[in-house]
Amino acid sequence: MMNDNVSFKFIRTIENYDFDNYENTKTKRNIYVNYKLIFLFLFLLLIVLFLLNYYKLSNLNKINQIKLINNPGNNNMINKKNDIKVCICTPGKKENLYITEFVQYYQKYGVDQIIIYDNNNINDESFEDIIKNYIDKGFVKIINWRGIKKNTGYIIREDCYSKNKNKFDWLIFYDIDEYIHLNNYTSIKTFLNEDKFKKCKKINLNWIIHTDNNLLYYDNRTLHERFPEIEPKVRYNKRIRAVRYKSILRGNNKYNKNSKYKNLISTFIKGCNSDGTESNLINMKYMRNYDFKNYYIDHYYSKSVEEFVEKLNKGDNYFGNKKSLKTYRIKRFFKINKITLEKIKIIEKRTGIDLSKYKKIIHKYKKI
After folding, report:
1. What angle do CA 321, 96, 116 make, to 5 degrees?
2. Which among 276, 143, 136, 149 has a CA at the least distance from the CA of 202?
3. Which residues touch 330 (CB under 8 Å, ≥6 apart)?
């Protein structure tokens, strides 16, 4: 009897059970499980595709590197960035106080070699005493030009270019008081590899002349620390009638060695401004399209008054040590620097040149 009751209750329970709802729930669970499986499958598929793509790119890079090694003439940017070679050619006379700063600065900028033409007098100071470690490593090369005086600047430039134009892609002709300034670039090679310079045989950069910062005497701080102030016309954004510039020359340029012009390398080689546009003048005089926004040369022309006098007395690589040159340089010095009696006394005492006209200028302004 009891078994019949249990059977009866079980039958009633089954009869009352909502089989439709059960089927729906089961279907939903199956769908949910299927979605999870699909999502997992897609996720794994993406990982597999990513790994395959990464493997292909790695192999492609290896193949490209092999091609670059086997084909050094390949003219793509990877090859150019890795293989471009840049050197600096510069004359040097009585520059031992400044040569370490110059060498370290351009080494950080990525220059491959600095070639210094030692133009000191025979018994004067030697670069080897200061930068022997750079010379021993081959980063600095010294050319013996000691005791040679006549037109040394022009001759040095031609000699360095003719002997090195096939060894380097670019040759820079700056003096030891000239420092290239390239905003947003930590390497000069990156700058020279810009597409805008592809057709340029020569790149012209303007000077910004730094003042004496009213310093009378030398101290052992760097040039950048001692002389941050720039010439007034640039400082106040005034129009400059004409601005001197220096050049970076592409290797293997052709030029006429028999030209009547002394400046053989740059004569009639068309140049580009820092933005890649063609310069409006070809020869090595002035470039009126000046631009100091991004790329220029910091030219520490005078330094302190004491150092300026030393510069006057050692003469010039291009024009020698004439009194007329000294007079011109003093005039230029006082165009960019403040005229004071202290400066006049130091220059007069150490050069023997009468500067009475500058004293009159001071008295004239005092009366005003």
Report:
1. 80
2. 276
3. 312, 347, 353, 355
DSSP state of 278: B
Please give the structure tokens belonging to residue 359. 């004293």
Read off the pLDDT of residues 240-262 as tens digits, 9 standing for 90 and up: 545 577 889 999 877 655 554 44
- The tokens for 32 are 């949910």
Where along the chain do its domains lie?
A: 2-58, 84-300, 306-367
| DSSP tag of 279 | P
Q: How far apart are CA 254 and CA 273, in angstroms?
A: 20
pLDDT in tens, 303-347: 999 999 998 888 766 656 677 788 888 998 998 999 999 999 999
Give the CATH number of domain 84-300; options: 3.90.550, 1.20.120, 2.40.160, 1.10.40: 3.90.550
Q: By the 8 A CB rule, do 309 and 298 touch?
A: no
Give me the torsion for CA of 28, 29, 31, 33, rounded to 10°: 160
Name the pTM for this structure. 0.72
DSSP string, 132-162: HHHHHTTSEEEEE-TT--TTHHHHHHHHHHH
| DSSP secondary structure string for all residues of 84-106 | --EEEEEEESS-TTTHHHHHHHH
